[in-house]
Amino acid sequence: MNHYRNVFYAIGISAFTISFFFTLFFAYKAMQFDQIIEKKTKAKKTNAHYVLISEELNNEYWRLVEKGAKAAGRRYHVSIEYNGPLQSNLSEHMKLIDMAISSKVDGIITQGLSEEKFTPLINKAMKKGIPVITVDTDAAKSKRVSYVGTDNYRSGYLAGKALIAGTNGKAVVGIITGSFEASHQKLRVEGFKDAIKNKPGIKVVDIKASNITKVQAAEKANEILSEHPDVNAFYGTSALDGLGIAQVIKRQGHEKKIYIISFDTLPETLQLMKQGIIQATVVQKPYKIGYESVKLMHEFKKGRHIPSTIHTDTGILYQKDIAKGDVSP
Prior knowledge:
By secondary structure, the protein is an alpha/beta fold. It folds into 3 domains: about 1-45; about 45-150 and about 285-310, Rossmann fold (3-Layer(aba) Sandwich); about 150-285, Rossmann fold (3-Layer(aba) Sandwich), CATH 3.40.50.2300. About 50% of the residues lie in helices and about 15% in strands. It is built from 10 helices and 12 strands. A 6-stranded parallel β-sheet has the order 2-1-3-4-5-11, with helices on both faces. Strand 3, helix 4 and strand 4 form a beta-alpha-beta unit. It is elongated and about 55 Å long. Mean pLDDT is about 90; it is low at about 25-30 and about 35-45.
């Protein structure tokens, strides 16, 4: 009898011990779960939501800006929403800014494509307590917090100086520009013209707009060559302009006759430079533009002083320098 009592006693102790340890285990797991929920809730409360609105959604240049912005977003624990028109469209771009304002986002990063049209929208956002940082294209007369990007006039000036050197100061030039309305495109043309104005051997005979598409850039380059057969140099003021120009030059077999200076270092542009079809390109830093804009927005939201303008690096990459040149985004 005592033997059975001892067995039942041992079983009881074992069951109690197992039950106790299971209770501790599940209590520990429950505590872990509560901590995870608490962390997530805290993150949700503290995370800011910024919107980056690009000129053209799937443009490779803007994808690099997005990449830099999202890298900074991870660094500063903020959410970055990337948006933009499928194809460059001023009205659509403005509508997206207005939607971001209505959504009461924590910050807007966008271009100031037209000073006249974008300034009221930027000021509207600022009045509602939504800070705006302009990138790539400034709206300097607006109440925007800061501008991050290329000095577009200077980049056009550098392109003009490069063309002078590349053609020995003698060229009949056609210009393909992304847009006649966008201020950054206008500044790139203005800077170029000022660089060549004291060179009587260089003459700009035509300027046509591509609407920042490769197809239209090719069409307009073809039109210029038909209307001005003596053209022996082209300047493209947006990343896709140079590609469209090169397509026409290659198709017509003029690779050795026509000098091309483009914008940006897209993989296709670099390949065309290696082939000797594009001789030079203006180098911008889109990744850095995206990263710095988010970093500045974060600093501003923390109440820290930030500069009103940050010009990112700009330079010229020549065909001969591709192997050794810094072409990082």
